[in-house]
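Section 5: illustrative case.
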């Protein structure tokens, strides 16, 4: 294999970003994607960078951890963030995309790039040479076995779930209303309000609804805590949903002027504004039960469900054992991992991992040392956190011995960023504190950007 060629496995969010980063540095890329010849349990197209669960990349505010990460990627020349902005749909202060348009735009950019050759076939072994493994949480069984053999560690499994999508023309706007929480931004969400009686009826249907049975081998796997199925949340108590995805706070129906007992929100899913997904309604209920549940929501009594929710298993490696904070493997130079398979959670984080790996493998080919991003930045904080075993250390209460807990997927958050010494009054002011941390991070990323 040509030592100046990079092989990237997986054309999801991380793989697509990595391919574009490498290609724009004048390096040839062979991008392998097994779809459509072999589909996963969650993808529905053969397009690059397909969004399979939510269509939101989270907040755009830099005082929000996810918003800061997106800003850092912009400064570093992130490709997919720019494409996301060009294919965005109204979502208040969040960046949400028309998923089909976004995927088509990414696919077009990749297919038209003279430095990228996209190969539609499944790899079952890790190839030699310069490689980025971005096969994602839905890595095929055969390739997962190859990764397991290389890492000599157990793979870790979590479950992720997808929310139903409905046609907007089938929504009853005599009951539903347009609005955004606290009237921030344009009124871009559809809101289905519930009184107490309607909520309790919905809750009763939900907690008694039949679920799709898991395979025996999957029954001990865990859920992503930030993407829990709605039925799992409901099992934690009658009011859990009212303080979670169905919280009514800040959503006033101007026709009545009252704050409701609970509210189901729907977010635009395509550029034509014909499809909307139920926010926070990831589920593993049987399809008949999903239909009954959705139709119990005021305003959705006759909703046409164009895609039902499903649940799928996610695979990720123990990055604290396998990777350096550059995302290069400790065991083999020139072999990198990127995306959710590293143990990051979220679309924005997946893209960021692809950007980091793409930059660093390019530097490796250019005979430059890969960059360890500063812990003061959100991208650096994530990379350092998942590759550091310190947070997994656990002192056994039984015998006092040092043991390691299994890692759990992590997304962008302020707790993992390097601390800063601030006066007590500033530490207690969350908004001011995050503004200071964000400013420091942006300066740090700008310094990195000058050298890549």
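Designed sequence:
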């Amino acid at each position: 294999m040509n030592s100046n060629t990079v092989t990237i496995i997986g054309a999801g969010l991380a793989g697509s970003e990595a391919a574009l980063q490498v290609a724009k540095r004048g390096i040839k890329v062979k991008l392998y994607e097994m779809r459509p010849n072999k589909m996963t349990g969650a993808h529905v197209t053969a397009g690059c960078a397909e969004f399979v669960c939510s269509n939101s990349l989270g907040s755009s505010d830099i005082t929000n951890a996810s918003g800061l990460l997106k800003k850092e990627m912009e400064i570093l020349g992130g490709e997919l963030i720019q494409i996301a902005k060009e294919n965005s749909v109204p979502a208040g202060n969040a960046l949400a995309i028309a998923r089909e348009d976004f995927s088509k735009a990414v696919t077009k950019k990749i297919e038209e790039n003279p430095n990228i050759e996209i190969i539609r076939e499944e790899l079952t072994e890790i190839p030699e040479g310069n490689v980025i493994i971005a096969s994602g949480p839905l890595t095929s069984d055969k390739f997962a076995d190859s990764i397991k053999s290389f890492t000599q560690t157990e793979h870790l499994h979590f479950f992720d779930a997808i929310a139903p999508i409905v046609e907007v023309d089938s929504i009853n706007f005599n009951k539903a209303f347009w609005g955004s929480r606290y009237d921030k931004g344009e009124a871009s969400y559809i809101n289905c309000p519930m009184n107490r009686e309607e909520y309790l009826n919905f809750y009763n249907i939900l907690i008694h609804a039949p679920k799709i049975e898991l395979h025996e081998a999957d029954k001990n796997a865990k859920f992503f805590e930030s993407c829990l199925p709605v039925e799992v949340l409901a099992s934690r108590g009658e009011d859990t949903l009212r303080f979670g995805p169905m919280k009514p706070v800040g959503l006033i129906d101007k026709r009545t002027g009252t704050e409701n007992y609970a509210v189901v929100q729907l977010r635009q899913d395509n550029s034509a504004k014909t499809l909307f997904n139920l926010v926070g309604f990831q589920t593993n209920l049987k399809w008949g039960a999903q239909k009954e549940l959705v139709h119990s929501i005021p305003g959705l009594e006759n909703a046409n469900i164009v895609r039902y929710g499903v649940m799928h298993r996610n695979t990720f490696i123990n990055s604290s054992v396998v990777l350096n904070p550059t995302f290069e493997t400790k065991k083999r130079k020139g072999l990198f991992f990127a995306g959710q398979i590293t143990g990051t959670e979220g679309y924005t984080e997946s893209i960021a991992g692809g950007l980091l790996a793409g930059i660093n493998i390019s530097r490796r080919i250019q005979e430059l040392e890969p960059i360890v991003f500063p812990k003061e930045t959100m991208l650096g904080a994530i990379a350092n956190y998942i590759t550091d075993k310190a947070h997994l250390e656990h002192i056994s209460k039984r015998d006092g011995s040092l043991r390691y807990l299994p890692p759990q997927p992590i997304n962008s958050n302020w707790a993992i960023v390097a601390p800063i010494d601030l006066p007590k009054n500033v530490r207690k002011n969350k908004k001011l504190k995050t503004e200071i941390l964000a400013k420091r991070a942006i300066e740090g990323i700008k310094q990195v950007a000058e050298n890549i």
